Amino acid sequence: MKLLLKGGRLVDPSRNLDEQMDLIVENGKILEMGKNLHHPGKKVTDTVNIIDLKGLVVVPGLIDMHTHLREPGFEYKETIQTGSEAAASGGFTSVACMPNTNPVNDTRSITEFIKKRAATCNLVNVFPVASVSMGSEGAFLTEFMDLIDAGAVAFSDDGKPVMDGALMRRALEYASSLGVPIISHCEDTHLSSGGSMNEGRVSTELGLQGIPSIAEDLMVARDIIIAGYTNTTLHIAHVSTAGAVQLIREAKEKGIKVTAETAPHYFTLTDEALKDFDTSAKVNPPLRSIADIEAVKGGLKDGTIDVIASDHAPHASTDKEVEFEYAAFGITGLETSLSLSLKLVSDGLLSLSQLILKMSTNPAKILNIPKGTLKTGFDADITVIDLKKRWTVDRGNLRSKGRNTPFHGWVMTGRAVTTIMGGEITYQEMT
Amino acid sequence: MKLTRKDILGIKDLTVDEINLILETAESFIEVSTREIKKVPTLRGKTIINLFFEASTRTRTSFEIAAKRLSADTINISASTSSVVKGETLVDTARNLEAMNPDVIVIRHSAAGAPHMLAGMIKQSIINAGDGAHEHPSQALLDMMTIKDKKGRIAGLKVAIVGDIAHSRVARSNIHGLTKMGAKVIVAGPAMMLPRNIEQMGVTVYHQLKEAIKDVDIIMMLRIQLERQQQRTFPSLREYSNYFCLNKQNITLAKEDVLVMHPGPINRGIEIASDIADGPYSVILDQVTNGVAVRMALLYLLTGGKS
User: Fold this and answer.
1) Residue A413 — φ and ψ, nearest 5°?
2) Cβ of A388 under 8 Å from any chain B Cβ?
3) Which of A126, A249, A312, B44 fits a 20 to 30 Å CA distance from A424?
4) Looking at chain B, which residue has its C-alpha nearest residue A201?
5) B172 touches chain A (CB under 8 A)
6) Taking every pair of C-alpha atoms in chain A, what is the biggest distance, in angstroms?
7) Across the interface, do B172 and A205 touch by the CB < 8 Å criterion?
8) What is the CA A254 to chain-centroid distance, rounded?
């Protein structure tokens, strides 16, 4: 079976391409690309599925390098199946899933289990991120070499930051020597302890204990200093503060090997979203101030922030329909990530190519996976985007089990209409 | 005039007209409590539930007496543990109560926003009797009523609120109320007790008692919660009382006719000296008396009464 994608606007940041071209897919790989292709490959007799993509954009399959699939252990929040469906409908062909499952992904058997379940679902490539420390308890390193053999692409104690600087140093040295990144959730838990939202005017008015922006800044600074000292590779997760953006910018100028991601809610919402105690906007790091939003946007524009990742954190209603300070942190994000990010393009902050760089090519590069490109010979992971498609977010219609979105009722412009993984269509928008 | 809102969740939401309506209605109820038979039939057949998730003597009793003097039936529920510990969610507890058709649910909860969550989910009126460090609207209303009674006005007065502002719902509700009514509000306490950006709520900030109470008309002392010492809110009670206890020496810095207020319960000798608490400036017990009238007014107005 072959696919001929005709008449779309091909945007492939991996080779600075942005023009109308056709694309042929065969045996799950990208076979050929060019103008006005009529027959796929040489054998004209093969069955060909021709898809007319006039007016649509064709990009390398989107990669979400920060997702929580919750399985094993928290299947009531999300499963690899429902998370995969959410990913495909959000335009993603690959996701990297965080290890804070139960048990924590700290051993080969868990990594293998995740890979196996993901293969059965077969809707999205799942790249497990294993934990830095056993049980993410911050004491003993996991078996990095064995976990990489089993399929882990990065290490992170996401959600339970590595407070011990010596452990972080060892983790960075070991991971770097093996060619994989450490993804650091930067939060000084002494400063953030007891907090449930950003510290500032809104938390003061609501009487809620705040999480100060310096809780993030301090750990970003620490990790950058360790990475610089040890000449290792560091990736900073979910940047939310102006201070962190500036620290990363300066580190890059100094030549320290640091990359960074942010999530759509950090350039879309401020802590004002919590004024009525809306637990669906309770997230960690917390929604910050308007100045932080501007700084995050500045970081996206000048390349300080390399990646937009959803930090998809689905929760059940029982985790969220409780008193604000008892509510779980997290926003379900796979199905709104692309649309919220496309706003950066329509607002003129990023070109479409720059956005796809941050949602596909860069994550592939950071995770060292052969993805994020439409070059011939690579896996046919392709996302087709309709930039003009208007749709309304309805939490009742999400594929994810998590309904915890602060964007319920928002009218979005632009979304993925077809998602292709390894040459197979994994999502097709109903017209 | 009628109160058109369903719930009383915080002073922040109230307009000046609404505050005046409540205070005027409360004035008219003062007299009821002085009668030999302290009861009017106004709320006969109405059911008021006091749902208290946090210990309270004064506020709960005050709401109960207010309801009973209006002839409403009252039920007190004291849930000593949080809903999380108890195993039933707050929402389920509230829905069960809703199904029994009360008219008003008065709720106190240690978590900020708990009454707001319920208000959005159930059809009955909710009165916030204190949610975490967020708001305590009936307290601010009785404070404003007391100030108005004693001073004849609120606008133009200088009010100093002293103590652990960060953890005080009384402070927040009073800041909203007093600034709306035209008073100038000062907050004071050691730096650890002043939350970030508090000045953006329209108050002036001081870190010394002596500066804060200079030439003020009203001093509102807040209760020091002894258990907060562990949370590094202050170094020691000794230091706090040495520098922040209102006593007969430092009170001379305030205006001669200063009023001393306290939401109670007081820690004698810690934030307030006994001779001040019991002295001529103190209106602490007037506050308690007015509390009943204010809560009668709230129950009356929420169940459809007119001024």
Assistant:
1) -120, 120
2) no
3) A312
4) B197
5) yes
6) 71
7) yes
8) 26
DSSP string covering A235-246: EE-S---HHHHH
Q: A403: distance to nearest CA of chain B, Å?
A: 17
d(CA A349, CA A362): 18
Check if B83 contacts A (Cβ < 8 Å): yes
pTM score > 0.90 for this model? Answer: yes
pLDDT at A313 over 80: yes
Strands A197-198 and A210-211: parallel
Predicted confidence (pLDDT) at residue A334 exceeds the cutoff of 60: yes
Nearest partner of A6 among A26, A40, A36, judged by Cα: A36
Q: Is B136 a catalytic residue?
A: yes
Contact A391, A412 (CB under 8 A): yes
Tell me the pLDDT band of A43, cut-offs 50, 70 and 90. low
* Catalytic (active site) residue B44: no
Cβ–Cβ of A321/B12 closer than 8 Å? no
Question: For residues B191 and A26, what is the distance between their CA atoms, to the nearest angstrom?
Answer: 68
Query: Which of A1-10, A193-202, A216-225 shows the lowest per-residue confidence on average (mean pLDDT)?
Result: A1-10
* Res A293: pLDDT: 98
Nearest CA-CA distance, residue A203 and chain B, Å = 9
Asked whether the beta carbons of B231 and B192 are under 8 A apart, the reply is: no
Summarize the confidence of residues A148-161 as an average pLDDT.
96
Whether A206 contacts chain B with CB within 8 A: yes
- pLDDT average per 10 residues of sequence, chain B (307 residues): 93 98 96 91 96 92 97 89 66 92 96 96 96 97 98 98 96 98 98 96 97 98 80 83 96 98 95 96 97 98 82
**A283-304 burial code (b ≥16 CB/10 A, e <16):** bbbbbbbeebbebbbbbbeeeb
Core vs surface per residue B213-238: b (16+ CB within 10 A) or e: bbebbbbbbbbbeeeeeeeebbeebe
- How many angstroms separate the CA atoms of B131 and B116, rounded? 9
Give CA–CA dist B39/A236, Å, rounded: 66
Count of pairs with CB atoms under 8 A, one residue in A, one in B: 72
| Other Cβ atoms closer than 10 A to B159 | 24
The answer to whether residue B59 is catalytic is yes
Strand order in the sheet with A258-262: A62-67, A92-97, A125-130, A154-155, A182-184, A234-236, A258-262, A307-308
Chain B hits for A206, CB-CB cut-off 8 Å, are 112-113, 134
* pLDDT (tens digit per residue) in A45-60: 567 888 999 999 999 9
